[in-house]
Amino acid sequence: MSEKPRAVEQTEIIRLSVEDQRQIAEAILNPPEPAPALHKALQKYRDLFGAE
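Structure (tokenized):
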């Protein structure tokens, strides 16, 4: 008897309403501007690691 791959075993089905699906698609197609905290975190990362 073979074992199921862990990824399949741990997979769950998520059911979304039509409105939830619309909101996710909208966020993917038209993402919001990054929050100021994200800009600050990026700057700290660049300062620490010298990345551009």
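Helices lie at 6-9, 18-29, 36-49. The mean pLDDT is 87.
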